[in-house]
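Researcher: We are triaging several targets before committing to wet-lab work. For this one, the compound of interest is pyridoxal-5'-phosphate. I'm pasting the protein sequence and the ligand SMILES. What I need is the predicted three-dimensional arrangement of the protein with the ligand bound, expressed as structure tokens, so it can go straight into our comparison scripts without reformatting.
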Amino acid sequence: MFEDDGYALETLAVRAGQIRSPEGEHAEALFPTSSYVFPSAAEAAARFSGERPGNVYSRYTNPTVRMFEERIAALEGGEAAVATASGMAAITSVCMAFLSAGDKVVCSRSVFGTTTALFNRYMQKFGVEVEFVDLTDMSAWQAAVDEKTRLVFLETPSNPLCEVADVKALADIAHAKGALLVVDNCFCTPALQRPLKLGADIVVHSATKYLDGQGRCVGGVAVGRRELMEELVVYLRTAGPTMSAFNAWVFLKGLETLGLRMRAHSESAMQLARWLQEQPQVEGVNYAGLESHPGHELARAQQTAFGGVLSFRVAGGRDAAWRVIDATRIMSLTANLGDAKTTIVHPATTTHGRLSEEEKARAGITENLIRVSVGLENIEDLQGDLARGFALLDA
Ligand SMILES: *Cc1c(COP(=O)(O)O)cnc(C)c1O
């Protein structure tokens, strides 16, 4: 097996975690099997009792899934990883493994909508208190995190405004009260940001996004210290939201190109952000790569590049935003992100459509806001795709 001997991300992304079978296959093997046969009754007993390691059943372990877990753990700089059926399964599993009735979760207001729903609708139902705070308001975090707090949860950069949180400072706030800091690293991936190195305890991912990178499979993963991941595995084995071997195999191949892709996404997003700033029909651009962005310096300090997602406001209201979106021919009108294909969406009426007017105003989700997840197409073609809509606004 390939060990992390201080190799760089690009090397680990291609090499870490591979288990080669006696067949000597060069590419990672796909093991589509639900169970495993034991060489003897004694060996079966030893594996069931946990006395000897080895495969028993694919809800517990699968070699393809294990390769993915070891590779992503190496990339994040974590001791171990646990793969799950989706990004939400990873977040739910962290909640189920580490929260009890009477505990409190302090969560950023700017997290994935379903994460908010999970805390509000389900965790509260089981007696977990939840408090939401503004991502960049350090005094609000300080005030909210108390002795009852078990989990502190955030995403950085945020969606869709690209606000940036100080992971190290938030880890200190969480640890001072004995809480775990959980960072959803979906937008940056370990290619751009390694929250565990900044003091986070657990990183969660929707592998569905950039880890796959080509929009094929739904999956998730949590990464962290071995003792935390061992607790998480017990929940996974009991509740069952495990990753399928096939999806793990797709994600393994996705990881091989992660560094290249994230660099390309980031370069194109940077170019698009600068171009957008120059367009008279654009009132403002949210991208942490721009020097004018309030999170720019912090992002520069804790990220190696600024990622592929940006948002911008067009002159006008919903009508203008919809005209620009509907005029595109290359970009896909879909709420997904992290794909080789550029996606475009109107947050106020889709991803953030369920927020009240007051919540939208507070979150900066205006009617003229458009979010783009910049893919791998030619940048000039993408600019032309938006320019067509901008020209309509002048008419
Ligand atoms: C998509 C997403 C999730 C949920 O992941 P699924 O794989 O769809 O369950 C969680 N967090 C962020 C930031 C996401 O973009």
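Researcher: Any quick observations?
Model: The CA atoms of residues 66 and 187 lie 23 Å apart.
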